[in-house]
């Protein structure tokens, strides 16, 4: 669909199927003549009007501004922080229990083989938690700026 208007009457919009072409402009011209014959054209075109004088009406394109992109990035950063916090919270209690089992390794006391095997198996959980915790702390640092960007975007003009 293509839409045309007149410089003399921009409120008049003529819609024709297809793309902008001489054929489409001729169809728009037919619609214009119908409007003139019905007395529905508020403009006097006594000096003449040709299909080449139609102005094509284009839909406004929405462009993403740098500010909008920054807001999108900020939301992504905070979403990532949320995910990491959730994982850290879910694994913290178990990791701290495993951490307490490490202390006997640094004493001269004997440690049962079963306890050592269990500890060795659980060290993967501890490692995962420690890595998540480091990523969470780093993400939290980055999210401070993201929060500031969102705060700016959420401020009303009245404030």
Comma- or semicolon-separated keywords:
159 residues; mainly alpha; 3-stranded antiparallel sheet; 3 helices; 58% helix; 6% strand
Kindly report the spatial arrangement of strands forming the biggest sheet.
2-1-3
Strand content: 5-15%
Work out the helicity level: 55-70%
Computed Rg: 35 Å
Q: Which stretches are low in confidence, meaning pLDDT under 50 for 5 or more residues running?
A: none
Q: Give the rounded overall mean pLDDT.
A: 88
Q: Decide which structural class fits the backbone.
A: mainly alpha
Cα distance, first to last residue? Answer: 44 Å
Shape: rod-shaped
Largest sheet: 3 strands, antiparallel
Count of helical regions: 3
Give the helices and strands as they follow along the chain.
Answer: EEHEHH
How many beta-strand elements? 3
Fold and architecture overview:
This protein has 159 residues and is mainly α. It is built from three helices and three strands; from the N terminus they run ββαβαα. α2 (66-100) packs antiparallel against α3.
Summarize the structure.
By secondary structure, the protein is mainly alpha-helical. The protein has helices spanning 22-37, 66-100, 113-154; strands at 2-5, 14-16, 55-57.
Summarize the helices and strands and which ones pair or pack.
Blueprint: E1 2-5, E2 14-16, H1 22-37, E3 55-57, H2 66-100, H3 113-154
Antiparallel strand pairs: 1-2, 1-3
Helix pairs in contact: 2-3
